[in-house]
Design brief:
The protein is mainly α. It has one domain (6-146): Globins (Globin-like). It contains 8 helices and no strands. The longest helix has 19 residues, at 59-77. The radius of gyration is 15 Å and the shape is globular. The protein binds protoporphyrin IX containing NI(II). Protoporphyrin IX containing NI(II) (HNI) is lined by residues 39, 42-43, 64, 67-68, 71-72, 89, 92-93, 97, 99, 103-104, 107-108, 138, 142. One of its GO terms (molecular function) is oxygen binding. Keywords: Heme, Iron, Metal-binding, Oxygen transport, Transport.
């Protein structure tokens, strides 16, 4: 069971309260698909991913970025039991989507970079520590139903 300090909780809820899901979700997913091109294989039905411009202007990718952030939202609302909150999502990624769980960490890193760029100097070391702890728990929970 993960323990959260009051400071960590307020940092995480504070970030999400002010996050523009459309901007951050799309930017993070685009970055993941461009920086780690093998992740594109899971989005074969999303249309044109031919190059970075195509990825950045693909409306299906932008919409899916928002969906991912709504997924993270679920973790924020269930910080004391992210594992249970993500059980179904983990089964989906494992058994139906067959997403290699190593990719969760790659997307998490892209999210960190995009959020850090957005927050600028307010992305302090304390903020980074809480944020990365949160994403590490998310990544672990998403990988739980793999076997
Ligand atoms: Ni992921 C669907 C959340 C990482 C590939 N993903 C979802 C959905 C949520 C979600 C929510 C929608 C589920 C539903 O429809 O019930 N995904 C998350 C989260 C992370 C993550 C929170 C990590 C932080 N997903 C990844 C990664 C990949 C990925 C790293 C592939 C590289 N996800 C998918 C695919 C779908 C998906 C593919 C289905 C898309 C569709 O609509 O066809």
């Amino acid at each position: 069971m993960v323990e959260w300090s009051e400071q960590e909780r307020s940092i995480i809820t504070g970030i999400f309260a002010n996050l523009d899901y459309e901007e951050i979700g799309a930017k993070a997913l685009c970055r993941c698909l461009i920086v780690y091109p093998w992740t594109q294989r899971y989005f074969g039905s999303f249309g044109n991913l031919y190059n970075a411009d195509a990825i950045k202007t693909n409306p299906n990718i932008a919409a899916h970025g928002v969906k991912i952030l709504h997924g993270l939202d679920r973790a924020v609302k269930n910080m004391d039991n992210i594992k249970a909150a993500y059980a179904e999502l983990s089964v989906l990624h494992s058994e139906k989507l067959h997403v290699d769980p190593d990719n969760f960490k790659l997307l998490a890193d892209c999210l960190t970079i995009v959020v850090a760029a957005k927050l600028g100097s307010s992305f302090t070391a304390d903020t980074q520590a809480a944020w990365q702890k949160f994403l590490a728990v998310v990544v672990s929970a998403l990988g739980r139903q793999y076997h």
